[in-house]
Amino acid sequence: GVYTYYCTLHQLSLYITLVCTRTANMFTLNTMQTIKCVVVGDGAVGKTCLLISYTTNKFPSEYVPTVFDNYAVTVMIGGEPYTLGLFDTAGQEDYDRLRPLSYPQTDVFLVCFSVVSPSSFENVKEKWVPEITHHCQKTPFLLVGTQIDLRDDAGTIEKLAKNKQKPISFEQGEKLAKELKAVKYVECSALTQKGLKNVFDEAILAALEPPEPVKRRRCVML
């Protein structure tokens, strides 16, 4: 079962092998158990780059689509293969009614904000966590700070300073994660890949961790 690996996952470093495959139907591999991970957050915070960088090991230098093509990633956990389904979503208001259609059966959410966009940080509390908890009340989520490579970028700091703003600190991210009852706060750069693998390792742990004696909290929309 899913939970027999929980202790092992916490005691040993997570062994993951990525085999990235574009596929029309991500869940045709019936022989594998599946973990569905949905990524949400404001537009332009780097959600798509996060997924492309993780699954292809390359940062998209040119065109970045509004919505990432879904990927099926094979993940080895405790010697058994799982299918990690990664779902991108569009953050713009135009998609507010369509976006929740991708939420059913979600095992874990990644709620993203850019550490150099205070407004995207505020929207985590104002929009994104309320939205996912409304549709999937008991599904675990991680708070993810993106674009950390820009935290020390002189031009970015100067631009923020003109609006009397500054980058979001790691401590601020941790504080908000605790306040909103996120499983954890993690941050990364899709460009340098710093912290990138850890984001998805932690997402897998959150999806497999038994929250209660009953069963894993998979989103079911009524």
SS elements, strand count: 7
Structural class: alpha/beta
**DSSP strand (E) fraction?**
15-25%
Radius of gyration: 17 Å
- Weakly predicted, low-confidence segments: 1-29
Please provide the ordered H/E string of secondary-structure elements.
HEEHEEEHEHHEH
CATH topology: Rossmann fold
Shape: globular
Q: How many individual helices?
A: 6
* CATH level-1 class: Alpha Beta
List the domain count as a whole number. 1
**End-to-end C-alpha gap:** 26 Å
Give an overview of the whole structure.
A seven-stranded mixed beta sheet has the order 1-3-4-2-5-6-7, with helices on both faces. The two termini are 26 Å apart. It contains six helices and seven strands, in the order αββαβββαβααβα. With 222 residues, the chain is α/β, with parallel strands linked by helices. Helix content is 30%, strand content 19%. The chain has a single domain (2-208), classed as Rossmann fold. It has helices at 6-11, 47-56, 118-135, 154-162, 170-179, 196-208; strands at 20-22, 33-41, 71-77, 80-87, 108-114, 141-146, 185-187. It is globular, with a radius of gyration of 17 Å. Its main location: other. It comes from Graphocephala atropunctata. This is Cdc42 homolog.
